[in-house]
């Protein structure tokens, strides 16, 4: 855990607080055992500086130390929980390989029975066959994947066509004649120009 604290730039409190406390005790011992007055004075000044530092920053350092300890414990628990969730997710995905899609994506029995021949007045079974075919396609992963790819391709084609049609309608509203000539082509623009000149001839000069 001390290695993790050393790697974390925000968790340097223990390496500051504990040495200062040790220095404080050391200089107190030197002050009591030293007979030289100069050494006593220096030791006393150092002790006062360390005590002042601990008084000013001791509470912050202690709070920082406990915050580091709590964060390390929380991080360790979070990593264990995330690893368990990853293992459960992996085992769940491995267990579902090759199985049918979720039941919510498949037709319900009531929807299937709605088109059953016994429920219909006529003997037409085409709707019931279509429902069964759809059920078989959705139940087979390969067939469902193929269906999704085809559906997405057709959907993109239809969306492209709708976008082009909306653009054509927008340009037709803004500039009708230019839009008709642009989208119809020159072979149809010539008869329209001729008809326009015939119906609305220019006055003689």
TrEMBL record:
It comes from the Eukaryota. It holds the Pfam family DnaJ. Keywords: Membrane, Transmembrane, Transmembrane helix. The chain crosses the membrane at residues 12-32, 41-61. Residues 77-110, 183-205 are annotated as: Disordered. Residues 64-151 form the J domain. This is J domain-containing protein.
């Amino acid at each position: 855990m001390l290695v993790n604290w050393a790697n974390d730039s925000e968790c340097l409190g223990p390496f500051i607080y504990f040495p200062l406390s040790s220095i404080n005790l050391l200089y107190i011992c030197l002050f009591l055992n030293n007979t030289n007055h100069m050494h006593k004075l220096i030791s006393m000044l150092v002790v006062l500086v360390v005590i002042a530092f601990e008084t000013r920053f001791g509470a912050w350092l202690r709070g920082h130390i406990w915050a580091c300890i709590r964060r390390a414990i929380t991080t360790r628990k979070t990593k264990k929980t995330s690893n368990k969730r990853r293992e459960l997710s992996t085992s769940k995905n491995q267990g579902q390989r090759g199985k049918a899609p979720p039941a919510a994506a498949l037709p319900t029995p009531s929807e299937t029975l709605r088109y059953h021949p016994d429920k219909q007045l006529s003997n037409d079974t085409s709707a019931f066959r279509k429902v069964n075919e759809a059920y078989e396609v959705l139940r087979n992963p390969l067939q469902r994947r193929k269906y999704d790819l085809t559906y997405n391709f057709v959907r993109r084609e239809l969306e492209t066509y709708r976008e082009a049609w909306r653009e054509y309608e927008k340009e037709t509203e803004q500039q009708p004649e230019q839009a008709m000539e642009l989208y119809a082509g020159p072979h149809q623009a010539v008869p329209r120009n001729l008809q326009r000149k015939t119906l609305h001839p220019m006055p003689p000069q």
